[in-house]
Design a protein that fits this description.
single chain; binds adenosine-5'-triphosphate; nucleotide-binding; six-stranded mixed β-sheet; Rossmann fold; ATP binding; ATP hydrolysis activity; globular; four-stranded antiparallel β-sheet; transport; about 260 residues; ATP-binding
Length: about 260
């Protein structure tokens, strides 16, 4: 398993949110977490993204407990995992700088120093201008023509696509996407879903939190159903949606569960 959560439990002051959650993702696989609002999808993604340790259970990278690694080693693992939040949070600068920024903060200190020296000395790369990975990431989301536009002037859908490109440009092995298309129109949704499929084809593992079951059906290899703070069922979408093992999944899919 490349990245896995094993028996994770976690809560906040108001009480437990996740209890005994296990989920994993492999290279080239898309796993969706479906569940009603407030059930803990974001909390699970943040734990997988190593933003903070779980109260109990482990997050493993290639079978090593990430919270038992040295800080340097854990930082190395975190660079392999990139998360796109529900809010794109772009800053007041051209699109290109927003995407490049994501890449820079992910670089090791020595690479950053080298990049600064290169920029200062005006080497070939600096003269050529834009990093080709940044352009490629923007091409994947169909926004290569917006490189120079201020990110704050983009539409909501475009901003979400730039946030996706920023994550891709860090060259991660795993992408964690929190409701990547909520509030987007069908056209922008299709672009993001195609970018997810493309990432998968290139061997990235993708974990998507969504409350949109149709989306889960379209994009996933496996679906995990998160209800009442735990994954009650995992399987291929056709199994989970058409012949679930757990009656609560059937009720959730049928819209019979009230939250
Ligand atoms: N930092 C925090 N401090 C306190 N409570 C939190 C914190 N983060 C999440 N929670 C609570 O944990 C619960 C799960 O939240 P979470 O955002 O993980 O759910 P979700 O399934 O992603 O919801 P949505 O689909 O609405 O985004 C909620 O009750 C939320 O209020």
């Amino acid at each position: 398993m490349t990245l896995s959560a094993i028996d994770l439990s976690h809560g906040f002051d108001d009480g437990d949110v996740l209890s005994d959650v296990s989920l994993s993702v492999e290279p080239g696989e898309a796993v969706t977490i479906v569940g009603p609002s407030g059930t803990g999808k974001t909390t699970l993604l943040r734990l997988l993204g190593m933003f903070h340790p779980p109260e109990s259970g482990t997050v493993r990278w290639r079978n090593e407990d990430v919270w038992r690694l040295s800080e340097d080693d854990r930082l190395g693992v975190r660079r392999r995992v990139s998360m796109v939040f529900q809010e794109p949070s772009l800053f007041n600068a051209p699109v290109e700088q927003n995407v490049t920024y994501g890449r820079r903060v992910r670089q090791t200190w020595s690479k950053r120093v080298r990049a600064t020296v290169t920029r200062t000395l005006g080497s070939r790369t600096a003269m050529e201008g834009i990093d080709s990975d940044v352009t490629a990431a923007l091409e994947t989301v169909g926004l290569a023509d917006k490189l120079g536009q201020n990110a704050l002037s983009l539409s909501g859908g475009e901003a979400q696509r730039v946030a996706f490109a920023r994550a891709l440009a860090t060259d991660p092995e795993i992408l964690l996407l929190d409701e990547p298309t909520s509030n987007l129109d069908p056209q922008n949704t299709a672009v993001i879903e195609e970018a997810i499929a493309d990432a998968r084809r290139r061997g990235l593992g993708v974990v998507v939190a969504t409350h949109d079951m149709h989306q889960a059906e379209r994009i996933s290899d496996r679906v995990g159903v998160l209800l009442d703070g735990t994954i009650i069922e995992t399987g291929p979408p056709e199994q989970v949606f058409d012949s679930p093992d757990d009656d609560r999944t059937r009720q959730f899919v049928a819209g019979e569960l009230m939250y």
